Amino acid sequence: MSFPEVRMRRLRRSEPMRALVRETSVEPGDLIYPIFLCTGEGVRREISSMPGVFNLSVDEAVKEAENAAKLGVGGLLFFGLPESKDEQGSGAWDDNGIVQQGLRAIKASAASKKLLLIADVCLCEYTSHGHCGVLVETGDGWTVENDPTLDLLGQTAASLARAGADIVAPSDMMDGRVAAIRSALDHLDCADTPILSYASKFASAFYGPFREAADSAPQFGDRKSYQMDAANLREAMREIDLDIGEGADMILMKPAMPYLDVIRAARERVEVPIGAYQVSGEYSMLMAAFEKGWLDRDRAILESLLGIRRAGADFIVTYFATEAAKLLG
């Protein structure tokens, strides 16, 4: 059958009709809100390249968590800005580190009953050189060594789990990191802590504003030797298979919007829950368009999230989480 017997507009005539046949939806509980923790008290410092996003001291982060919980947001993802850094990134696994302090404080608040607390596992925010692993000098200069980094990532994940993280999320892209973290958790009475692996994290230009937010820009070189080449879809599927084989309970795709094909391919390939990270560059692009009046803010926020869900993501890490939750509510 075809027109005039078939008229597709029949099912678009009113909002109740459109709602009845809608295939994809976004709910506040599908959204994860990133939090950048810093030292001090009463600190709420706006990030210049990410208007509306702040570096927060622990007391301010507790307030932010309480607000997110009231709005029905699904969880928080924590990053840390330590008071000092060193070559090993030892602040990452310090049991009194800034993220560990934040986790304990929020875990003790009423907000923790409604929110999942997810801790990013990486060294770049804590190393003096800004790279995600241990550096070794070779004849050709400095290189990020894979295997010596694994033990440090395991220690970091275990410290974060002990501090109250409901989920640990390795984002470093070292080979074998999921197995190392799973082993460290299982040997330290954290066997029930799930791993959300950034299984396909691409070396992307869209991370620029985040590096200001987390003070994590590499001091030399780039991360292309460990983060993925933007051109490679099949390689992403191999990374996903390996991480699940090593014990990842969930996977996270990063970035989201420029890589919707990767999210769709992963959704068709695996059965584990899939998240996608609407990264800082995606947020800042939209914010710039809103400031210029080029896009309808409310509609564009929700449409961007809906597209990520439609591609196959079960949940979305987004800096719009609390704003979107208000719109959805």
Describe it:
The chain is α/β, with parallel strands linked by helices and about 325 residues long. It has a single domain, classed as Aldolase class I (TIM Barrel), CATH 3.20.20. It has eleven helices and twelve strands. The model has no long low-confidence stretch (mean pLDDT about 95).
Number of domains: 1
Instruction: Output mean pLDDT.
Output: 93
Radius of gyration: 20 Å
Query: What is the first-to-last residue Cα distance?
Result: 40 Å
Supply the helix-strand structural class.
alpha/beta
**Please, how many helices?**
11
Number of strands: 12
CATH class: Alpha Beta
Spans of at least 5 consecutive residues whose pLDDT stays below 50 are none
Strand content: 15-25%
Helix content range of the residues, please?
A: 25-40%
CATH fold-level name: TIM Barrel
The CATH architecture classification is Alpha-Beta Barrel
Task: List descriptors.
329 residues, alpha/beta, TIM Barrel, 10-stranded mixed β-sheet, two-stranded antiparallel ribbon, 11 helices, globular
